[in-house]
Amino acid sequence: MQTFDKFRSVWSSAELRERLRRIRHVALDMDGTIYMGMSLFPYTQPFLSGLREAGIGYSFLTNNPSKSIADYLHKLEKLGIQATREEMYTTALATIDYIRAHYPAARRLFLLGTPSMISEFEAAGFVSTEDSADDRPDVIVAAFDLTLRYERLCRAAWWISQGVPYIATNPDRVCPTDQPTVLVDCGSICACLEHATGRRPDITLGKPDPNMLSGILARHSLQPQEIAMVGDRIYTDVAMAHNAGAVGVLVLSGETTLEVADRAERQPDIIAENIGVLGEMLREARK
Fold first, then answer.
1. Which domains can be identified in the chain, with CATH numbers?
2. What is the C-alpha to C-alpha distance for residues 56 and 49, in angstroms, rounded to an integer?
3. Among 237, 263, 172, 260, which Cα is nearest to 26's?
4. pLDDT tens, residue by residue, 8-28
5. 123-153 burial by CB neighbour count: b if 16+ within 10 A, else e?
6. How far apart are CA 238 and CA 228, in angstroms?
7. Angle formed by the axes of helices 13-21 and 275-285, nearest 10°
8. What is the pTM of this model?
9. Which of 21, 152, 211, 238 is the most core-located residue (most Cβ within 10 A)?
10. What's the number of CA atoms in the CB half-sphere (13 Å) around residue 39?
């Protein structure tokens, strides 16, 4: 592996250049990659402009289901990024797709999530069940719930203990933030439920599940080696790239430090200081 300055790669310089030359689309994680909280990184806009100039497409992927697509588009607009619904894919949408495919008769869901996320499910035709032992759901969905209430956590644990199908939207332990706090994410909420019930989710969606990339590949008629998955977590973003056969790029602008990356069992294809450095690498590869 090359010595780290602004980037390093598991490939030789010649192979790295060739791999980057093949990239036709970039799938971008959001929290910790293009912004932190409500702060857009200064290199994000130039990076996106550089992709457009090079004819490279991009999509925004997030394991954070706490906001609806409309909310995310509004947030991006406030940060100065114009995006379309087709450029967004969240784990809430992935969960909706999964339930439709695997539980086609399911309509009533116990949703451990924010009102914004619940609205996304209701817009898709599902009913959010009440916090009542008499209102049995068809499926339990546990998500990153910024509005988590103790009584609803207990109700979720009850239905889980009763054997109701149980889906987690994402495995993330914490959500990146620029505030002096720790945002407990879905993976940690599910760990709490497992400790209380002895049961893990039947399936955990979101990154690193490779299905998060399959829609983008199909939509743009891409081969896996033509897409780079870029994010700040090895265990979700980079792992998904590996699982899908895509190029996995770790950026050090969010959760993962270089020391943590060095201890990873399987190394990212590329480690870059931030997406601005990746943009420089893509430009160089095309010269």
1. 7-63+207-285 (3.40.50.1000), 100-204 (3.40.50.1000)
2. 10
3. 237
4. 999 999 999 999 999 999 999
5. eeebebbeeeeeeebbbbbbbbbbebeeebb
6. 10
7. 90
8. 0.78
9. 238
10. 10
